[in-house]
Amino acid sequence: MPTTAVDPPKRLHVAVGVIVDDHGQLLIAKRAAHLHQGGLWEFPGGKVDEGETIQQALRRELDEELGIQVTAFSPLVEIHHDYPDRHVLLDVWRVDGFDGVPHGREGQPLRWVAPADLIASEFPEANRPIIDTIRATFGSS
Fold it and tell me: What's the DSSP call for residue 84?
């Protein structure tokens, strides 16, 4: 019986913002229940569209999801993670400046938390290295 080669899923490139307020708190958003990894908390962001730079994607996604305009950001970490059903590249950026007041434009709950209060089990597995990086970079305050 012949076997058919199946191409592995394409790696999904995602722009992620670790948004920091003036008090060192971080903004997290709850994923909608119907989405992959639904019901878990995440750092806001989304898919990089074809022909778009990571910076353009970050700005677009944070405007679409939160209604903010990013003014200051810097690279934080890149994470490659393989779920059984998809492969992701999380391109994570620290966002230290933005205009507007973040709100869940897609109906998602938002929460500001201290880095020390992030609970890894409440996030998708691919986000856990982000939490480790935050703790190492931001300290435990």
Answer: S
Assess if residue 72 is contained within a domain. yes
In a 3-state reduction of DSSP, which class is residue 49? coil
- For residue 66, being part of any structural domain is answered with yes
Structural domain contains residue 5: no
Q: How many domains does the chain have?
A: 1
User: Which pLDDT belongs to residue 84?
Assistant: 77
Could you tell me the residue range of the domain that residue 91 belongs to? Answer: 11-138
- Both structure tokens of 117: 């209060």
Q: What is the pLDDT of residues 77-99, one digit of tens each?
A: 999 998 777 788 999 999 999 99
Residues 57-70 as b or e (16 or more Cβ within 10 Å = b): bbbbbbeebbebeb
Give pLDDT, residue 82.
85
Does 35 map to a domain? Answer: yes
Residue 138 makes CB contacts below 8 A (sequence gap 6+) with 20, 24, 26, 115
What global pTM score does this model have?
A: 0.86
Residue 46 has pLDDT above 90, yes or no: yes
